[in-house]
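I can't quite decide. Please look over this sequence plus structure tokens:

:::
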Amino acid sequence: MTDLIDLRREGAVAHVYLNRPDVRNAFNSEVIAELTRVFSALGCDEALRAVVLGGHGPVFCAGADLNWMRSMAEYTWDDNRADAQALADMLWTLYSCPLPVVGRVHGDCYAGGMGLAACCDVLVAAEGAHFCLSEARLGLLPATIGPYVVRALGEQASRRYFITAERFSAAEAHRLGFVHVLSAPEALDEQVGALTQALVANGPAAVRASKRLVQDLSGRTIDDDLRVDTARRIADIRVSPEGREGIQSFLARRKPAWLAP
């Protein structure tokens, strides 16, 4: 573990914090590689039940590191392609992590930072936080983060903010559905903690399967194949050890095994 990412565990919850407050948690190739490594490892940890993604210092993430951007001026097309692919792969690793990821956003969430936020399953933002897809101001476009932002923000709002590069508030992000929970700054950790407690209270396999279900259902046509697929999934989990335990504990009015002390 490098000092670029602060990783700590509290019981079954992992906390991953960007740890470059001096540059507003902007990321570069090293941060991208470290986030890829960290989330790949966390996703394989069967003891974990949830991940919190946040940032140390005054902001969540301001996007790309300026020194990293300066170095790109000397890149060839092939260099730029490889660099962008590493970012795309990191975002996919975060998005496809089997564990539920709770985003903790405060301060600014700009450009690539919005990509990180969009990959989270639940997003909690402090009042006073601001969001911005600023790429067009630099003559660029939010291509690698685009698939995740469009899914999380919605097509119509993305049309506006991709092309205007306007800054918008946490309250507006909440109204648009990008942010799930809008919190007073002093209550941010309390809100995040309440969500992780809710996640840990549920069946661990069911939570992972539910996350995958949403991703697989998004945009699909409701046809015969989909109906067969969803029926198979519920049948599979009903006969699984966790599914049987969940039903039996409910009927017996006792805590399920995954909540036993």
